[in-house]
Amino acid sequence: MTAPEIVPTTADTSWIRSLGGCFIVFDGPDGSGKSTQFRRFADVARAAGVDVVEVREPGGTAIGEKVRAILLDPANAEMTTRSEMLLYMASRAQLYEQRIAPAIATGALVLADRFISSTLAYQGTAGGIDEEEILAVGKVATGNHWPDLTVVFDVDTAVAMNRLSPLLDRMEQKGFDFHARVRSGYLAQAERWSHRYAVVNSSVAPDAVTNGLLGAIQTWMSKQRLPRS
């Protein structure tokens, strides 16, 4: 039996309690290690006494999971980028209304594994759809509600692709150049919306990434007027 993972930090994390009622997205290229950090941060937040609601994209609802199966199936290679974008947004609309908005209303910390930032990077920068078109559809899908913070886990594309499972889904199969454009798209977003984005170097060891993540969120939080849990 595998022992439970212990988050490698001795720092005071009581500040995380101030994140109640916030909506934070963890995002980044495939192979960036964001899923490991998502799990670690959720555990730290719960240990600090925060009510945490976790969601993932695409999916997170019964309807969204059906959309996810369509989007990630390698058999659907003929899917156009615009159709792909709209399917992601359909899953997102259901997720926001059914799970995210109600959780925020109760004062929970909502943690999402991907959100509109992914669509901007994958279907926008890498796929060629105009950013403003994506933002317009996103406004409809979420009722013009946006994450308080998007954390981008940044890693060299070659390193990221070496981390991927050999059983690639449809999005992971798109090749080096595509994924390099995805990375540049995330970094461009973080520069454009620096007040609500944080970039964490995920090329280093997982423990160092975790500490960098905690520092990035605490730094962002110190600049905000956040709801109190």
The gist of it:
This protein has 229 residues and is an alpha/beta fold. Helix content is 49%, strand content 11%.
For this structure, what is the CATH class? Alpha Beta
Output the strand order for the largest sheet. Answer: 2-3-1-4-5
What percentage of amino acids are in beta strands? Answer: 5-15%
Question: How far apart are the termini?
Answer: 36 Å
Per DSSP, the total helix count is: 8
By CATH, the superfamily comes out as P-loop containing nucleotide triphosphate hydrolases
Spans where pLDDT lies below 50 across 5 or more residues: 1-10
Principal-axes geometry comes out as globular
Structural class: alpha/beta
Find the count of extended strands (DSSP E, 2+ residues). Answer: 5
Question: What is the CATH topology descriptor?
Answer: Rossmann fold
Taken in chain order, the helices and strands follow as EHEHHEHHEHHEH
* CATH architectural group: 3-Layer(aba) Sandwich
Sheet having the most strands: 5 strands, parallel
Number of domains: 1
- Please state the oligomeric state of the protein chains shown: single chain
Mean pLDDT: 90
Helical content class: 40-55%
> Which value, in Å, is the CA radius of gyration?
17 Å
